[in-house]
Design a protein that fits this description.
The protein has 292 residues and is of the alpha+beta class. Helices cover 13% and strands 30% of the residues. An eight-stranded mixed β-sheet has the order 12-11-10-19-14-15-16-18, with helices on one face. The longest helix has 29 residues. The N terminus is likely disordered.
């Protein structure tokens, strides 16, 4: 359920034809001089040459960041403002080993030197915000945008700290399998339940936004991970779940593992969820693909 709550021969022949005749002529001249006793020709030595000055290495300029209007919206738990660019590699299952942690309200842009569209605050719903880095350019850093699917934002330098992210979660929809990786190596895999037709678990890269206590007994009494992703079709989920994020959580039983029965969330066993809760930190990258 949503949380409310990714041809030597021909070449050698030509070389012989090109080089063989001059070599034979030179050899004949040398042999002729030896036979007649005439002195060999004086070699011609070329004079010293002055090397051309090295061209200076061009310095790539940093696109300036336009001032951000004070009335820009702040990204919250609600769906993020539109206009940000699509993630260029949404199905990339490579690790995202670094994240950005805002130290103050910072402006998010649609491109390096582009338009500021929103602010990222240090927290969302009281949870310290950490967003994975997906790309870098001179003076700019691209991160996965919270409260949006397969979307990035560009941040200028300043106002944030870089943090290390060791873990990654990969979910395969066709095999209903979740894989936990640390430092690029598989730690564990588990079977999972995924979204039903019409409410499929969204594909693409996202991240762990934070955790919250279970709001109902059906969640098995274990905390829930809220992800940065939201339902692809928010109107398709039940009314009580409108505005919710996709979650990673357990269930009161394991009868539906391996099936498509949720409202878009990922369900796994209670023991697996407890292990991930003990190990994963906000910002941990999370990618959903059809199959590896």
């Amino acid at each position: 359920m949503p949380f409310d709550q990714i041809s030597g021969r021909r070449l050698s022949g030509w070389l012989f034809a090109a080089l063989g005749v001059p070599l034979l002529v030179a050899t004949a001249l040398l042999v002729g001089h030896a036979l007649t006793g005439a002195p060999p020709p004086t070699p011609v030595v070329a004079g010293p040459t002055t090397p051309a000055p090295a061209s200076p290495t061009p310095v790539e300029s940093v696109p300036p960041a336009a001032p951000a209007p004070a009335d820009l919206p702040v990204v919250t738990y609600d769906p993020a403002p539109r206009g940000f660019p699509a993630d260029p590699s949404p199905a990339d299952t490579g690790p995202l080993p670094e994240g950005v942690r805002p130290n103050r309200k910072i402006a998010a842009y649609d491109a390096p030197g582009g338009r500021p569209l929103a602010f990222l605050a240090p927290t969302i719903s009281g949870v310290r915000l950490t967003v994975p880095i997906v790309e870098r350019r001179v003076g700019w850093t691209a991160v996965l945008l919270p409260s949006a699917n397969r979307t990035i934002a560009w941040l200028p330098a300043g106002g944030w700290t870089t943090v290390v992210l060791r873990d990654q979660i990969v979910v395969e929809r066709r095999t209903h399998r979740l894989t936990w990786r640390r430092d690029g190596r598989t730690v564990h895999t588990w079977p999972v339940s995924l979204g039903m037709p019409g409410q499929l678990t969204p594909l693409g890269r996202t991240f762990v936004l934070g955790r919250t206590p279970p709001p109902e007994e059906v969640y098995g009494g274990v905390d829930i991970f809220a992800l940065g992703a939201i339902p692809d079709d928010p109107d398709a989920v039940p009314t009580g779940l409108r505005g919710a994020h996709i979650g990673l959580h357990t269930w009161y039983n394991d009868d539906t593992l391996g099936e498509d029965v949720t409202n878009g969330c990922i369900r796994l066993t209670r023991s697996a969820q407890r292990q991930l809760l003990a190990e994963l930190v906000p910002g941990t990258s999370f990618v959903v693909v059809d199959r590896l």
